[in-house]
Design a protein that fits this description.
- This protein is mainly α and 276 residues long.
- It folds into 2 domains: 7-45; 52-275, MetI-like (MetI-like fold, Orthogonal Bundle), CATH 1.10.3720.
- The chain contains 11 helices and no strands.
- The protein has helices spanning 9-44, 54-66, 69-100, 103-118, 121-132, 136-160, 164-172, 177-215, 220-229, 233-261, 272-275.
- Mean pLDDT is 80; it is low at 1-5 and 270-276.
Length: 276
């Protein structure tokens, strides 16, 4: 018996058809926005500094790529982002499990964790600059901070809400603590962990852009800031577009496949395609 559920051919065609229809509607919406934007430029009658046309943005994008600026900035941003995301997620899962396994520790630390979670990374970046200076280390620590707490909180919640009946059943069969953790607690906490990862990934992406505005001389965030400072608004919009497209790619290529390979495959949640 295969471990992977395969939809019948008609169902696969229906799913593909829904996805294609949504993609076409999305593309039509973007096209309509661009056409309206281009038409509005002569009607507004403002300089390209205040209101650049789509053609100005395309020209700026081409210039940035031709000079090699955009590829370098993009690579630097992605290196910082994934390094901070992975480190913050790993620390969040480890500490979430360790704290969640001990009720007294969880109750004791809960107010402190909520207090720190409420302090956004924007407030920490100036302090990190004072402590560590401008550059990679400050951005890396800021991203770890912003990822750590959502993952920690959701992991902790998942561990604390694991079905006690499963834990007791395994213990009655002579399972060790490690076996209880691997076969009962972690699978039950997995939806919470994935949720925390998605939230942390989104927070980290926004935090990355702000941190690069403050503490970097390269990156998409710095490109957005630099474009405003040098009155090259088209460059700022290029950075914004790259930022949005990059997040869509991260969600489509990494986060959604992760959900399908884990909690959806194991039947722990309903596929979003089936809900819409």
């Amino acid at each position: 018996m295969s471990g992977t559920l395969t939809l019948p051919a008609p169902a696969q065609h229906r799913v593909f058809g829904r996805r294609a229809a949504r993609a076409l509607r999305g593309a039509a919406g973007v096209l309509l926005l661009l056409v309206g934007w281009q038409i509005s430029v002569p009607l507004v009658g403002m300089s390209s500094y205040f209101y650049p046309a789509p053609s100005d943005v395309v020209a700026s994008f081409t210039d940035l790529v031709r000079k090699g600026i955009l590829p370098v900035y993009f690579a630097d941003s992605m290196e910082r982002y994934f390094a901070g995301l992975i480190a913050g997620a790993l620390l969040g899962v480890v500490f979430g499990v360790l704290i969640g396994l001990h009720r007294t520790v969880a109750v004791t630390l809960s107010p402190l964790l909520k207090f720190l979670f409420a302090i956004v990374e924007v407030a920490w970046i100036p302090i990190f600059v004072v402590w560590f200076g401008y550059g990679w280390k400050t951005i890396f620590l800021a991203l770890i901070y912003v990822v750590f707490f959502p993952v920690l909180y959701n992991t902790l919640l998942g561990v604390r809400t694991a079905p006690q009946i499963l834990v007791n059943a395994l213990r009655s069969l002579g399972a060790s603590r490690w076996q209880v953790l691997c076969y009962a607690i972690l699978p039950s906490a997995l939806p919470g962990i994935i949720t925390g990862l998605r939230v942390g990934a989104g927070f980290a992406f926004r935090g990355l852009v702000f941190a690069e505005m403050v503490a970097a001389k390269t990156g998409i965030g710095y490109l957005i800031f630099e474009g405003t400072q040098t009155q090259q608004t088209a460059r700022t919009i290029v950075g914004m577009v790259v930022m949005g497209l990059t997040w869509l790619a991260i969600d489509l290529c990494y986060l959604r496949p992760l959900e399908r390979a884990t909690i959806e495959r194991w039947g722990l949640t309903v596929d979003a395609e089936q809900r819409t």
